[in-house]
Every structure is written in C-alpha cells, then in structure tokens.
Amino acid sequence: MNEQQRKLSRRSLLAGAARIAGLTLAGSVIPIQLASAQQKVSKQTMKYQDKPSGDQRCDGCMQFVAPSSCKVVDGTISPSGWCMAWVNKA
After folding, report:
1. Which helix (H) or strand (E) element contains residue 4?
2. CB of 86 within 8 A of CB of 58?
3. Concatenated DSSP letters of 52-75
4. What average pLDDT does range 4-21 have in this prediction?
5. Distance CA 45, CA 43 (A)
6. Closest CA relative to residue 63, chosen from 48, 16, 51
7. Quick one: how many helices (H) and strands (E) in the chain?
8. Which DSSP symbol is given to 40?
9. What angle do CA 16, 22, 24 make, to 5 degrees?
C-alpha cells in the first residue's frame, strides 16, 4: 500500500467515525424531541370539571402547572378543578 492510499484510507476511517458519532448523537436527541411534542387531551376526554372530587384538586396534582394550566389537559384549568389524570403531588 503506498502513502497516498494509506492517507485516503485513514481519512475514510476518520470520516466514517465522525458520521457514526453524529448519528449516535442525533439518535439520542430525537426521542427527547418526540416525547416533548406530545399533544394535550381535551377537557371532555379527561372528564375535567371546575370543582374538586373530594379532596382531589388540580392544585394538588403533579400534572398542574400554576397558575392555570396542566401538562395533560388542554385549555385553562382551575386550581380547584379535577380530572381523570389527577395524581397526588406527594
């Protein structure tokens, strides 16, 4: 193998390694973007109501985002409301 072929071979190897590293990095970022792109569900689907269900209130739920939003349910949410997605903040 002459010097020209060995340099070309080394370049090809380094370029291939860079491509693999780039694809690996891109592969680890894509699932994060897909997870954050999830759509919220309608109030009707989640049986949302503006009043609590016993001691379960939106402001005590881990899905609630103050002052009036939710990670799961679409639209304006009352802190004293409730829906099926309620999970204790613990």
Report:
1. helix 3-36
2. yes
3. -BTTB-GGGBTTEETTTEESSB-S
4. 67
5. 6
6. 48
7. 1, 2
8. P
9. 105
What is the pLDDT at residue 36? 53
Which residues on neighbouring strands pair with residue 82, listed in sequence order? 49
- Residues in the chain, total: 90
> Where are the strands (E) in the chain, listed by range?
64-65, 69-70
Indicate the residue type of 3: E
Mean pLDDT estimate for the chain: 80
**Burial degree of 24 (CB within 10 A; 0-12, 13-18, 19+):** exposed
Above 60 in pLDDT, residue 4? no
Name the residue type at position 86. W
Distances (CA, A) of 67 to 59, 62, 88: 9, 13, 17
* Cα four-point dihedral sign 68, 70, 74, 77: negative
